[in-house]
Specification:
- By secondary structure, the protein is mostly helical.
- Helices cover 70% and strands 1% of the residues.
- The chain is built from 14 helices and two strands; from the N terminus they run αααααββααααααααα.
- It is globular and about 60 Å long.
- The protein starts with 12 loop residues before the first helix and ends with a helix.
Amino acid sequence: PQEWYEPVRGFELVNVAAILTLFAAFINPSPDQRLTGTVWRNKHGRLMWGLLLGVVLSQLVYGRVRGGVDAFEEFGKCCVLLFMTMTLVDNPRRLRRMMWVIVISGAIFCIHGIMQVRTGYGFANVEPFGSFFDGDFRVQGTGMFQDPNDFAMLYVVAIPFVFTFLQTDTMILGKIFVAASFPTMLYVLYYTQSRGGVVGLGAMLLAYVWFSTRTAILRILVISAVLGALVAFGPKRARETVYEGSAGGRIMQWGYGNQFLKQNPLFGIGYQRWLDYSDQVAHNSFVTCYGELGLFGYSFWFSLLWLVLRSVYKIVRLEPLDRGTRRLAIGLFAALVGFYASAFFLTRTYNPFLYLMLGLGIGLIRYVDRQPYCPAGYLDITNRNIGQSVLMAVASIPAIWVVVKLYWAVGGGS
């Protein structure tokens, strides 16, 4: 609320809450495993440590000591967020609570978004992005969601949690609340006019439908209906040609990212230094990562995203899993798929919300791995898994290069 309420505006409530949470986690450790042991021994957590090292080295190798310290301080907050989440949200009951927090926050922000659509002002007189009186505007949130694209990604994540609560043993008042929230979330998502958000919404819905329905015919029918609705009723910006100016500029930035990697293959151009070399962001989290952090940092980042998604997928397919936990896992898997799909068209490499979601995934993995019905080693990360994920990360770079080349070849560019 520090952006909404004048007396506390500018006061870093998030940092205060983080420090208190960290302190509480140390003095009141989990009975089965202490915080320090969890953070150091968990293999997903080790990938995060490697990513932090890559972020810092991307500055230090060029002699930018001050830049390295700043990178550690800034990205270190994302590390703390992931470690706290994976350690403290380590059972279905706590995961369910966090899902409720995200859904309720999204519902409150719906009021904020609707106010912008109707009056041109949201909470604390926040105005939409663009020209409200000309009708060319995009609603936005505040704080880490103070951007239409970030605002859209909030709902890409919240909507599968809404579906989860509708299909689990939730009190009737809770079901009424989430059922009423769903259309308003779609309404606000529409007015963000975020193309990346629409892509993420489509990917999320496909993932959720695939695991929530059992028959192939029903899957095909529902998926066809979802895709048709997105094409027919999606935001105007999402229906524009891929060769319009904004899209062309993004593809050009992807090409720049490939050039940055070619010039600095191991450590990239440096954490958060893209705009020092270009006048526009890449609008692709993957390109941003390997352009700024090089192959070293990108391998850790890509592996972290892939191996968390892979493990949650394996949980969804685990037969002895109880119905409630399976529904939570399906909702979380769909949210991750939607976030990743959006991130491919938006620059969200270091977004705190991403590391919150990854922390939720690792927390669920830790819980299921401790259960007697989980086969020994089922959720382990082996050296082979890490090697495969690194190969996938490296292979994704020429794949993006091919996309850039095809785009310009088909569009008549050079």
